[in-house]
Design a protein that fits this description.
alpha+beta; nine-stranded antiparallel sheet; two-stranded parallel ribbon; 4 helices
């Protein structure tokens, strides 16, 4: 199991790798247009139901997830409360496996203001994390159509050396966005759907942003590191597979 303590993600994480210049330019144009259109529809009066289960106005993070036991539930930090709209909901919880490893799960749910959730890649670098690789992973999920859930994976290295191993701390972060009957690992797709809802239906989409992180054990060689990263991703996949059905709204909600 993982030895290093897991990272503590706050609101979100950076880098768009593997894209051509034309693809990047297209994404920039799309996002620019959607920002303008969102601004022009700032008087939207309706709000959709959240795509995840809510209890007393907060996302529901279960006490246990398989062999994982949840620790103390933390709300939004004071720094987050200062920069996020007041109707933003958010919780964070660390889960410990029976064998001793940890995973940290954060959930942010947007209110009526579209700025409640921003591009995830903006936050982790500010916390000292350098994103080495970013790609989409597919995880089994019985609650999804086709039994698959796509998430964005980020392999990251912290810029502070670990005192015991004298090596940089490593972690894998996975995130995805959940709306009312909509799920995506892509920020640009979430923005497009949001804009469409605001313009055509006078409705603001209350997206949930789910971020999960686990440490990668330190290794001396690149081959051993690759095995450690694969082990961590399998652990994260198993956690998400068991967590996500519990996050979905109940039929009577």
């Amino acid at each position: 199991m993982n030895e290093a303590p897991p990272p503590q993600p706050t609101s979100a994480p950076a880098v768009t790798r593997g894209l051509s210049v034309k693809q990047l330019a297209l994404i920039v144009v799309i996002l620019g247009v959607t920002v303008v259109l969102t601004t022009l529809t700032s008087d939207v009066t309706k709000a959709s139901e959240p795509g995840i289960r809510m209890v007393n106005g907060q996302p529901c993070l279960p006490d246990t997830i398989g062999q994982w036991t949840g620790g103390t539930i933390e709300g939004l930090s004071e720094a987050e409360k200062q920069v996020l709209p007041p109707d933003t909901a958010g919780l964070r919880r660390r889960y410990t496996h029976t064998e001793g490893s940890d995973i940290t799960c954060s959930v942010i749910v947007a209110g009526r203001d579209v700025t409640s959730i921003h591009r995830p890649e903006l936050c982790l670098p500010g916390q000292g994390w350098n994103i080495q690789q970013e790609k989409v992973e597919t995880i089994r999920s019985p609650t999804m159509e086709g039994g698959k859930l796509k998430v964005m994976r980020m392999d990251a290295v912290h810029n502070v050396m670990m005192t015991v191993s004298n090596r940089s701390a490593r972690a894998i972060f996975v995130y995805w966005f959940v709306g009312k009957d909509r799920v995506t690992p892509y920020h640009w797709q979430r923005i497009l759907w949001t804009t469409k809802d605001r313009i055509l239906q006078n409705r603001n989409h209350r997206w949930a942003y789910i971020l999960i992180a686990a440490s990668v054990r330190p290794e001396q060689t690149s081959e051993a590191l690759a095995r450690a990263q694969a082990d961590t991703m399998r652990q994260l996949s198993g956690f998400v597979e068991q967590l996500y059905p519990q996050l979905r709204p109940q039929p009577n909600n």
